[in-house]
Write a structure and sequence with these properties.
Glutaredoxin; about 160 residues; 7 helices; binds FE2/S2 (inorganic) cluster; alpha+beta; about 45% helix
């Protein structure tokens, strides 16, 4: 199915294109606008971006597959990144990941059976002083305990722990 932006998001793209010296320089922010709408960068989105910016599909694909912030497969409604680099690991990052896996019912790299959450492992997310931490969508949650994590998961609509 061909991809198209909504009129409002197309205006965002037009505004972006005025801020960069050429279309290629706007590639990352344009992909971001598309992912905000579609949830991931599907082949149809890549084709649309390539055509819109007059780039090759290979160029668009290279950027999409290089940056972890772009999803080249469908993801859940919310994406949870658990930091597994040294500072977070020294302060319980492994336990945080295991708790998330148990609560969501999926392993890192997977999506909960209700399709609501995708769990991903991240390299350092630059909040080492507040380790351990997770990123849920655009928000950082720092100095986590398992109890605090449960409260956060409750607030974003994860299934209760006993049902997971
Ligand atoms: S090690 Fe986790 S934020 Fe840096």
């Amino acid at each position: 199915m061909p991809f198209a932006l909504t009129a409002e998001r197309e205006k965002q793209v037009e505004a972006l294109l005025t801020r960069y010296p050429n279309a290629r320089a706007a590639l990352i922010p344009v992909l971001w606008v598309c992912q905000r709408q579609h949830g991931w960068i599907s082949p149809a989105v890549r084709d649309w971006v390539a055509q819109r910016l007059d780039l090759s599909t290979a160029t668009v694909t290279g950027v999409v597959t290089f940056y972890t912030m772009f999803f080249d497969k469908p993801v859940g409604e919310h994406v949870i990144w658990v930091c597994r680099t040294l500072s977070c690991d020294l302060r319980g990052g492994k336990a945080i990941q295991e708790h998330l896996e148990q609560r969501l019912g999926c392993h890192a790299g997977g999506t909960s059976t209700d399709g609501k959450f995708t769990l991903m492992k991240a390299e350092c997310l630059a909040a080492c002083g507040q380790a351990p931490m997770v990123q849920i969508d655009d928000d950082y949650h720092e100095n986590l305990t398992l109890e605090g994590l449960d409260q956060i998961l409750d607030s974003v609509g994860a299934a209760p722990a006993e049902e997971a």
